[in-house]
Amino acid sequence: MVTWFAEGSLCGTALYSQGFCCPLRLQKKLAAEPDHTDVTLPAVERVRALSKMGYNIEINEDIAPRRYFRSGVEMERMAAVYLEEGSLENAFVLYNKFITLFVEKLPSHRDYQQCNVPEKQVIMKKLQEVAFPRKDQLKRLLHEKYSKEHSEYLKSQPQAMAVDMCSERLQKMSLLEEERQRVAQLRKMQIESEQFRYFEDQLQRQELASRRDEAVPKVPEQTDGSCLSQTPRNHVRLDPNRNKPAAPVPKPAATLAAIQNQRVEGLRRVLIPRDLTYRFLLLADSNTARGIETCGVLCGKLTHNEFVLTHVIVPKQSAGPDYCDMENVEELFSYQDHHNLLTLGWIHTHPTQTAFLSSVDLHTHSSYQLMLPEAIAIVCAPKHNDTGVFRLTSAGMGEVAGCRLKGFHPHSKDPPLFTVRTLCSCCKYEHRQLYVPSVTNVDIKSETPLEK
Predict the structure, then answer these.
(1) H-helix or E-strand spanning residue 288
(2) Which fold is adopted by the domain 30-223+251-259?
(3) How is the chain split into domains, by residue range?
(4) Under the GO molecular function aspect, what terms does this record hold (predicted)?
C-alpha cells in the first residue's frame, strides 16, 4: 500500500459539495422547527430543534453494516474535533446521530447479527463511555448558553418577559421529561439488545452441545473450553461502568469564540491540493501505459467546519481496463485510524476513456456519499488530458440506491445524476489563499518517501 502525506505548502482548490456552489447558496433554513438560531425562542425549544437534526437518519439495507461501523468511527472522530474547536452545536448533533444510528437504526439491519468486526466493539464502547455522557453534558452547556441569549433578548423586550418566562418553564418541564424518557429508552434498548444476543448465543451453544451428546452417547464430550467459556464478542457489559465518571467535555478555546454560532445545516467545503492529480498520475503511470485502472482513497482532516484533503492512500488492488477493486481493506483502516484520518472520497483513472462516472462508478461512489454527504469522486483521464470532480445529486442518490443491477448498465440522464467540475475551472471558486499541503509518495509500512 502506498500513501501520500502532507509536506510543503500549496494553494488549494476549494469545492463546495452541493453542486460545488459557493457557501452563500448553501444557507438554507432548517427543516426542523423551531430554528435553533432564533434567540427569541426559549432555550428548551432551540435545544430540541438541534436534537431533531440528530434523529433524522435512515439506513440502506444494501450497504453492509461494516460500512456503517467504519462511518461511525469517523463520525465520532469528527464530533471530537468539533468539541475541541468549541463548536458545541455541531458536536451535539453528531453525537445524537451517532446514538440514533447505532442504538435505534442499525440493529434492525438484516445482516447486523452476522456482522462481527473490530469496529463494532469500538462503537459499543464509544456509546457507553463517550457518546451518551458527552451528549448529556453538551445539552446542559447549550441550554445554559441559549438561556443567557434568551435572557438578553427579554431584557430588550420587557413587555414579553413575564409571558415568555412562564411559557418557558412549562415547556422546559415537558420537554425535559420527554427527553429523559427517550434517553432512558435508548439505554434500555441497547442493554436489551446486547442481552438478547448473549442469551441467544448461549442457547445456540447449548443446542450444539446437546447434539454432540446425542451423536456420541458413549464418549464423554471433551473440549478445551476455548469457545464455550468465552463471552460473546459482541456482548458489552454495561453495569460495571454505569457509575464511571463521564468523559469530560473540553472547554471551548477563547480564540474559537467566533465559530460558536456557525451553521449546522448544509454541506461543508472540501479543499483539494492542486498537484493531487499530477502526483496520482505519476504513481499510476505504469498501469496507465498498460491500459489498467488505478484507484486510491481520499483522506483528510476536519478543521473549522472544512475538510482538508491531506492524504491519498493507494491500497493493494486488482484491476483491469475497466475496473479496479481494493483488497486488504484492514490495512487501509489501520492506517487511517493510526493517523486519525477521515474518508473524503476516492480517485481512479480511466486510461483510455474520458473523465465520467460509469454505472459501476455511480454505485461505488453512492456508498461513499451515503457515509459522508460531502464525499467526492475524482476521475483522471490522462489520454484526453481531462480530470473531473464528481458528486451525486439528490436524484442520483435516490436512483442508485434503488437500483439492484450489477456490472455496467444504463441509468436515466434526466434529471442529471451527478454534478462535475474540472480542477482547472474550479480554481475560480478559490476565495482566499490557504496553506494546503503538497503531497509526497510514501511507503505506508515504513512511512519513508519512495524514490521518484
Answers:
(1) helix 285-289
(2) Methane Monooxygenase Hydroxylase; Chain G, domain 1 (1.20.58)
(3) 30-223+251-259, 269-443
(4) K63-linked deubiquitinase activity; metal ion binding; metal-dependent deubiquitinase activity
Owner of C-alpha cell 519513508: 448
Q: Where are the alpha helices (DSSP H) in 100-237?
A: 118-126, 132-156, 161-215
Phi, psi of 82 (to 5 degrees): -60, -40
- With vertex at residue 202, the alpha carbon angle to CA 200 and CA 207, rounded to the nearest 5 degrees, is 95
- pTM score, two decimals? 0.67
| 260, 344, 346 from 368: Cα distances, Å | 29, 8, 8
87: helix, strand or coil:
coil
Q: Where are the beta strands (DSSP E) in 221-365?
A: 269-273, 295-303, 306-314, 317-320, 323-326, 342-349
Q: How far is CA 40 from the centre of its chain?
A: 33
Architecture of domain 269-443: 3-Layer(aba) Sandwich (3.40)
CB 307 within 8 A of CB 300: yes
Report the candidate in 285, 270, 330 with the shortest Cα–Cα distance to residue 441. Answer: 285
Q: Per the omega criterion (within 30 degrees of 0), is the bond before 133 cis?
A: no
Using DSSP bridges, classify how beta strands 269-273 and 376-381 pair: parallel, antiparallel or unpaired: unpaired
In this structure, are residues 142 and 264 in contact, taking their beta carbons and an 8 Å threshold? no
Q: Which residues contact 427 (CB under 8 A, 6 or more apart)?
A: 13, 274
